[in-house]
Amino acid sequence: MTKVKTLADLKKLKDKLQEKVKLREKGLDAENHVQIKVAMATCGIASGAKVIMEFLIEELDKRNIEAVVTQTGCMGYCFAEPTIEVTLPGQTPVVFGYVDVRKADEIIEKYIKNGELVDGIIPQNYETIDNN
Amino acid sequence: MTKYKMHVLVCGGTGCRSSASDLLLENLRTEVENHKLSNDVKVLMTGCFGFCEKGPIVKVMPDNTFYTQVKPEDAAEIVNEHLIKGRKVTRLLYENPETSEHVGDSEKIEFYRKQLRIALRNCGFINPENIDEAIARDGYQALGKVLTELTPEAAIDIIKKSGLRGRGGGGFPTGLKWEMTHKSKGDQKYVVCNADEGDPGAFMDRSILEGDPHSVVEAMAICGYCTGASQGLVYIRAEYPLAVERLRIAIAQAREYGLLGENILETNFSFDIDIRYGAGAFVCGEETALIHSMEGLRGEPTVKPPFPSQSGYLGKPTTVNNVETYANIAPIILKGAEWFSSIGTEKSKGTKVFALAGKINNVGLIEVPMGTTLREVIFEIGGGIKNGKKFKAVQTGGPSGGCLTEKHLDTPIDYDNLIANGSMMGSGGMIVMDEDDCMVSVARFYLDFTVDESCGKCAPCRIGNKRLNEILDKIILGNGTEEDIDRLRYLGAVIKDTSLCGLGQTAPNPILSTLDNFMHEYLAHVIDHKCPAGKCKSMMKYSIIPENCVGCTACARNCPVNAISGERKQTHFIDSHICIKCGACIERCKFNAIVVN
Amino acid sequence: MNNIKLTIDDKTVEVAPGTSILNAARTVGVDIPTLCYFKLGDMPIENRPGGCRVCVVEVEGRKNLAPACVTECTEGMVVKTHTIRALNARKTVLELILSDHPTDCLVCAKSGNCDLQALAQKMGIRQLHYTGAQSHYRKDTSPSIIRDMDKCIMCRRCEMMCNTVQTVGALSGINRGFMSVVAPAFEMDLEHSVCTYCGQCVAVCPTGALTEVDHTNAVIRALADPSKTVVVQTAPAVRAALGEEFGLEPGTLVTGKMVAALRRLGFNYVFDTDFAADLTIMEEGTEFLNRLTKFLEGDKDVKLPILTSCCPAWVKFFEHQFPDMMDIPSTAKSPQQMFGPIAKNYFAEKIGVSRKNMVVVSIMPCLAKKYECSRDEFKVDGNPDVDYSLSTRELAMLIKQSNIDFNALPDEDFDNPLGESTGAAVIFGTTGGVIEAAVRTAYELYTNKPLPRPDFVELRGLEGIRSATIDVDGFDLKIGIAHGLGNARKLLEDIRAGKSHFHAIEIMACPGGCIGGGGQPLHHGKLDILKKRQMAIYREDAAKPIRKSHENPFIIELYKEYLGKPLSEKSHHLLHTVYFDRSRSPILIKSNGKCE
What we know:
The complex is a heterotrimer of chains A (132), B (597) and C (596). Chain A has 132 residues and is an alpha+beta fold.
């Protein structure tokens, strides 16, 4: 370890290290963040949900969007996998189906950034897709 | 840097570790590796989550999944189901005792909803053995701020204005204490952290040191800067090996980063910390006794003044603060006195950590704003009384405190209210009693403790408390008189009035407060020779109701001392002189023919 | 700083800052009772742990009662010492102490002299409202001191004496709560501890917890045995204090009455330890002159300063604590132990009594003397040179038991030949006396000139550590004096560090020297008593026709007839001793005899 010489160093170090705990901090304060749940049951994984999840985590970070990306079980829309549920702060959740990388990109740019709806929304007839 | 998708937090506090959480941690890591998830999932050990009743605790982030009572063998299922397939393991989720619903999100658990965590901000959140995680959570930023932006006077002023009072029991204003040491002249001054937590049922300080040792290390350095001390000493009981170990690691890491040592952050300020071990004497929590113990002398208090801030360790000006007090310092410096003083009541600012214990559903560690009512703490956060029994009393302030009852439930908890109601804040132990507890026995339990822990220096504490205990014994054995009750009151008052230190001055409190609130129980013992709670064995009498007895001989055959006689198919009889009141007969009797009164 | 004004029991008091309520009250005639508190005049010997809580008083505006002994006066303080609250608390606390104390006053060694008993009487305690279990401890008997800790009230005076004043460290508080008691580490026996038997713990114990081993019955038996010739020797400090036991003013010299009493008790020969003190000066003085001469001749290895060796507690102290420096003290035995072999050899031969039929009893102001005469090197085939050592207190008891009206006794003289002594020997009884006696002789032997005046007032006083430079015919003789083992430790540490510039140092274990010995009538903290005893000693010295040891005609005769000259072979055999390294001796032995 190198010595922390100045307060500025300490602040820099903090910024660098924050990544380590950010995931946890966002979790505690989820309602003030964009929350994305990726369905990651067998059906989802088979349709490429894993790639989508990684893409989302990577891209949201690159585009400086504070979001909590979590995985969840099967949402019951196996026909439309991969599916993701996006909750903007203070809004009701919206589920998107058939999400590929291009679609995911569109969701980020249009829905998450500007609140514009995009194609592929699965009508909601449930209260929550949290499996609990 | 690896972009983890999930963090799995495993409680590494003393309680959870004693239920094999370290093996659980190991198993989770192995499972994660076996499933090649090491790049996606980070498994780490943290400090105490506070919900000790339900430990070992595993928390999955960022989805806030809160698993309780997790066994090492549950690791595979958590990884397979939750981490891979995204399905929470329902059977391990916290179950709301009222609705029997499984709660997936810890934010929605009643235990946590009313809490406000300042001192415990990092407990159960960071890995206490990794300074980087502490720094990521603003660790040492407050130290940096005072060293580079504030004069000692200005920093003390912030602490004074925040209204922070000592969390160890006395409630002395922390800023004032610092100011006294600051103004005392001395070539060498000391900063002492009192980690000699000794109240029965209290583990606030242990949990902070185990879960977030850097909060204490940083605050001691801040105190050193403010008071002009370059040496810190942590007096910790040797019975806290885990806390000692984590503190040692924290000090070593802080030294490596140069956050302890010479010329911290290239300022003129140098500060280092040593650890001193206590041998588990309760009286050594008293600051003068603590200092004598550190000096290698017998752990005995001396009369104040002089106060430690004038003449303390080795005769030098010394600031002694408790662990929890230190844990509040950095947030106050960073967020300001106004922020802190906006929390709490008029004269008690901020939050207080309590250790809930006794007949309460959610045994554990909680932190609530000052002014929260006992009802909120016991019935909302604490989940009410175990087994649906009736609440009787809560003992606050440990053996120095008193019992509060039903009528105090809606009193906002703060230093002054507790004292006004005959108890005290103490270090934050809260032991809940239900209808089955005999308050005379409860008073005796606490007095037993103080009689054991008295240092023996002053006569009223050494002999007086022993005499009080003997009178209680007499009452519990059914030999007490009304005069004995008067003696308890009178002698208790003299002991409070004449003892040398806080231990003796408060030792009679459990008796005096139970006398105030439960006089009827005392009277029942001495006049009716009955224990209303049915706890005092010597006053119980087992007898057989002839109408119900069919003469099955089950009781007689199972009596370990042959106290029951009677022919087959004849009414049996219990000889109360032989009976040891073990209750074996009642358990065996199928005809409800045996009664206790 | 300005004086502080306060009110105590409606009286205005003005005191210096830092004054305790207790002392402030005493200036206006308010005598707040105390128990654990102890102070020896203006000497730096003070015990105020604030532990007994008997001195609690009411201070306006204060939540609880304040212990007067440790509470400093503050400006405008209003103190009330006998309100009903203070009085009741004081009595209750005293009752509590009594409830954990055996009530065997009738047969207690301290009865009549017990601070606790006196206080209970003063406070009019007639009934104990709180009774219960009493704490019990193993009784511990050592060669000098009996510890009956059932009677300990945890005043900690003994601990203060042992640790702070004497820096011996044999006694400290152990255990917790009700079972707290003052004891050697690990509750080992005193005999296995570093205790020096100085007896200062006994001298300050307010109760019967610490008392001396009583040898009066053994002495009575010896006196009753017609086959025994019983010889008694009396130490110089005894005559200056014994009268106190019979109601006489402190400082009354009772030499003649004491001799008369001893004779009436049936001792066959009443001799004086002072005679042996003169002998000590001859041996020790010669040893010193030899070392000094070598030193002045340029011998760098010679051990200087020389340290006196008359005090058995001091000897045991350096054997435990400074074993690396055992070659510095004089090898001369103490006067008591010089007297023994002279009586049992020289005198026994003279009167034709066999050693085994002679019993030597010493009357000493000291408890360590009991231990000293039990040391193996002071025995011949198991027969001790000195059989029994009685303290001043025990002698008084013996006199009273024997129906002797002490005050009505005529003055009588010691027997010869071992009863004649000089003024130099008398002053052995006070701090500074041994070295003054030695200087008187050394001066004349060294310079071969008569002393201009025998009084060296620069060596006298009660300061804990004193030093003086004496002009010995042009040579600057540097003398150091320490009394109290804590003061001795300081001088020894200087020597060890090579910082000492003294040629000779006198050390006495007890504050004040033998006049303040552990076997003397209890002074109860009154330093005046010690001062008066000291004045009496110097009075006796001044009144003596001969004031220099080497001029004692019976000493001259003893050398001529028997010893030859100082440091002769015979002297070495009878009058000198060796020391033992005891630094490892406090083995941790538990009561079951097993090593820890």
